[in-house]
Amino acid sequence: MLSPVLRELSLVQILLAIGGIGFLIAFHELGHYAVARLLGMRVLRYSLGFGPRLFGWFKGGIDYQIAALPFGGFVQIAGMSSLDEAAKDDPQSFLNAPRWKRWLVLAAGPGFNYIAAFFFFFVFFQAWPSPTGAPALELVEVHDGAAKEAGLVAGEFITHVGGDAVTGDNEFRAAVTASAGGPLSLTVYDPRSDASRDVAVTPRVVDGGLRLGVSPAMRWPDAGLGPTLLAAGVNCTGETWRTLQALASLVKREPGVDVGGPVAIVADMKDKIALGFRYYVRILASLSVSLGLFNLLPIPGLDGIKMGWLTLEGLVRRNINLKMQEAVNAVGVLVLLLLMVGLTVRDGLRLFG
Q1: Do 79 and 145 have their domain in common?
Q2: Which domain holds residue 51?
Q3: Residue 110 and residue 156 in one domain
Q4: What is the pTM of this model?
């Protein structure tokens, strides 16, 4: 029997969610592809997904393909593998490029994700500015808990916390933690009545942390191009910090911290899309930061560890055994694929109840 969550899924929302994730992966790989070609390297394949080739086309000597396993993608450049004997004498191969060029090619994927995140944040703030004329936290959702019992409703905006103007969602979360479970004074603006009121909310301990029971989204005023660009950059930084904190909590196995696979991400995106298109843009920005940051981690199989090998080679001024690097990366890719399959099965079972 299908769970209520699955029965409510909208096909259009699912397609938008899958399309959004596919775009972020494709844009990440576009970074590798574009910088490799810009720096004179010979690209052999641009692939969305891993495993057997489903379909695609050849153009300019490059195989553009869609593969069977939709858990990422890759760009194949001549000379990236020690098994590519022909590339050893190829001046356009990855192997024969200076280390700084190889490093830039690897960094370009996560870099493009941050470019996409910056763009989505900019569009979000420019198209949907704060109605208060100042930075404010929109209550996207109000769940059962302290905030709901205090009378807060979705669509309202928190403008002040403890008498201080809201400056960012990280600062807001810090204020909730600093309350130590005591009453927190909030000034809340309701755009429907164009009125503000003061509300005292006492955070509760949920899953080991203090929570108000809200899903907030930072909104910035329409203050012109410069401030909006700055706000987009600030939010890229803030999202990076929140993601690092979440990863640290996951490593520490703190209560209430979980990791979701592709199915869970699509389901979460579907819920955000149902609230309004602007939240689709907002979650794409957050996911793009997460994807870029994740790929920068020194985990075997990801861009981060390959960049680390090159940095280490530059420091010691000698090459590190390429076959050993490839063996470590191959194991990492296999583990990541198995993890994605496991998370997909787990999330699928949850959706089917």
Answers
A1: no
A2: 4-126+289-351
A3: no
A4: 0.85
Which of 201, 219, 237 represents a domain boundary (last residue)?
Answer: 219
Q: Provide the number of structural domains found in the chain.
A: 2
Main-chain phi, psi angles of 276, to 5 degrees? 150, 150
pLDDT in tens, 71-111: 678 899 998 877 777 777 888 999 889 999 999 999 999 99
- The pLDDT value given to residue 260: 67
In residues, how long is the chain? 353
Q: What is the largest CA-CA distance in the chain?
A: 72
CA 115 to chain centre: 12
| Crossing angle of the two packed helices 303-316 and 322-351, in degrees rounded to 10 | 160
Encoded tokens for 153: 């409703």
- Residue ranges for the chain with pLDDT beneath 70: 1-9, 71, 207-208, 253-260, 347, 351-353
Rounded-to-integer distance, Cα 101 and Cα 94, Å: 9
Q: Is the CB of residue 142 less than 8 Å from the CB of residue 131?
A: no
217 neighbors 168 (Cβ within 8 angstroms): no
Whole-angstrom CA distances from 60 to 10, 43, 50, 73, 148 are 39, 10, 22, 20, 59
Domain end (from 219, 240, 260): 219
Would you say residue 62 lies in a domain? Answer: yes
- 72 with 104, same domain? yes
Identity of the residue numbered 310: L
